[in-house]
Write a structure and sequence with these properties.
It is built from ten helices and nine strands. It has 436 residues and is α+β, with helices and mostly antiparallel strands. Among the domains are: 36 residues, no CATH class; 243 residues, no CATH class.
């Protein structure tokens, strides 16, 4: 039979509501609120200030402790930082923009003055005096170097030498660039191949058809390149026992022959063993790095770890040349093999990991009892129209920033004005191209 159970009624003499918290609601957090309050914003992206002051507390709670979850915009002084007001150093492109503009204005003014002078009617004696004055002025400038040409600027900053010159060193002979430029060896006999080593892959002629519209990405090819100096070459050590009295590599000889164009510091080591001379490069040096815009009017000047510092640009250019010289070949296919294997490949080394490089040890007799033996390198081989075999070296130039060094944008000019690109690179990289 149904019955009615009377509920427990709590009497609260000092107010209304229960006297104790029920067990199911004992640990539940509670915040007093009012249903008329607006919901506060976590972050006001439309702006923290209001033009009308009436809307300043629009989202604040109007009841009890409800303002705990409302958003107030307060200035946080803990995260306050001073603004760096130091002046940033201008790049070479920005720094010399006014200089080039002033130079062009000065050149136009001189041209107008010359035109105006040529239009004046002078007697014969006055014209002859003016010619004599101009001739003497040019002779004086040429003799004493009063005014430099527009493309012959002085060195902007002192560069570090590749080796420390000690005070106790004795100078045997000093040769300046004008004397070196006049030195020529006109009659050079044909070289004689003494020994040929290594194997070469064939050049892929599909790379001749690449344009800016038909581009091809440069791949990273994991191959080993050996940059062994002269005295560490086992073949040269063997040949030095029986023939030759001067030994070097093609890279060292090319550096010496084009030294009048160089700007950065470098050095080589010459060792005399009995009556024989060995030209070596220094270990762990930057001798094998390919410089970028070394002979430009405004060479790279940035320091430290900047992408455009001279050393980082040289490392990038060397990396590009190594990969490009292998990507242009038909890798994994038929090879042109010389009679002797690569002297720098060890027995336990994978032959596919070694770069396609062959070495020809050539001999020149230069007279005056100079018997020169040089190790020459080749990157690939190419077959001609009649089937003749030609050994080639693959080199490449890379663009780094067309705004500097009076450069041109390759992507815009390489197809239509290829000669302008080559002319600019011949000026900015004359030393590197002379070595090649």
């Amino acid at each position: 039979m149904a019955k009615f159970v009377t509920p427990v009624i709590q009497d609260n003499p000092s107010g209304w509501g229960p006297c104790a918290v029920p067990e199911q609601f004992r640990d539940m957090p509670y915040q007093p609120f009012s249903k008329g309050d607006r919901l506060g914003k976590v972050a006001d992206w439309t702006g923290a200030t209001y033009q009308d002051k009436r809307y300043t507390n629009k989202y604040s709670s109007q009841f009890g402790g409800g303002s705990q979850y409302a958003y107030f915009h307060e200035e946080d002084e803990t995260s306050f930082q001073l603004v760096d007001t130091t002046r940033m150093q201008k790049t070479a492109y920005q720094r010399n923009r006014m200089r080039f503009a002033q130079r062009n204005l000065r050149r136009d003014k001189d041209r107008r003055n010359m035109v105006q002078f040529s239009m004046q009617t002078l007697p014969k004696s006055a014209k002859q005096k003016e010619r004599d004055r101009l001739r003497l002025q040019k002779k004086f400038q040429k003799q004493f170097g009063v005014r430099q040409k527009w493309d012959q600027k002085s060195q902007q900053k002192p560069r570090d030498s590749s080796v420390e010159v000690r005070s106790d060193w004795e100078v045997k002979e000093e040769m300046d660039f004008p004397r070196l430029m006049k030195m020529r060896y006109l009659e050079v006999s044909e070289p004689q191949d003494i020994e040929c080593c290594g194997a070469l892959e064939y050049y892929d002629k599909a790379f001749d058809r690449i344009t800016t519209r038909n581009e091809k990405l440069l791949r990273s090819i994991k191959r080993i390149f050996h940059t062994v100096t002269t005295t560490d070459d086992p073949v040269i050590r063997k040949l030095a026992k029986t023939q030759g009295n001067v030994f070097a590599t093609d890279a060292i000889l090319a550096t010496l022959m084009s030294c009048t164009r160089s700007v950065y510091s470098w050095d080589i080591i010459v060792q005399r063993v009995g009556s024989k001379l060995f030209f070596d490069k220094r270990d762990n040096s930057d001798f094998d790095l390919l410089t970028v815009s070394e002979t430009a009017n405004e060479p790279p000047q940035e320091e430290g770890n900047s992408f455009n510092s001279p050393r980082n640009l040289a490392m990038e250019a060397t990396y590009i040349n190594h990969n490009f010289s292998q990507q242009c070949l038909r890798m994994g296919k038929e090879k042109y093999k010389f009679p002797n294997p690569n002297p720098f490949v060890e027995d336990d080394m994978d032959k596919n990991e070694v770069a396609s490089v062959a070495y020809r040890y050539r001999r020149w007799k230069l007279g005056d009892d100079i018997d020169l033996i040089v190790r020459c390198e080749h990157d690939g081989v190419m077959t001609g129209a009649n089937g003749e075999v030609s050994f080639i070296n693959i080199k490449t130039l890379n663009e780094w920033d067309s705004r500097y060094c009076n450069g041109v944008d390759w992507r815009q000019k390489l197809d239509s004005q290829r000669g302008a690109v080559i002319a600019t690179e011949l000026k900015n990289n004359s030393y590197k191209l002379a070595r090649w």
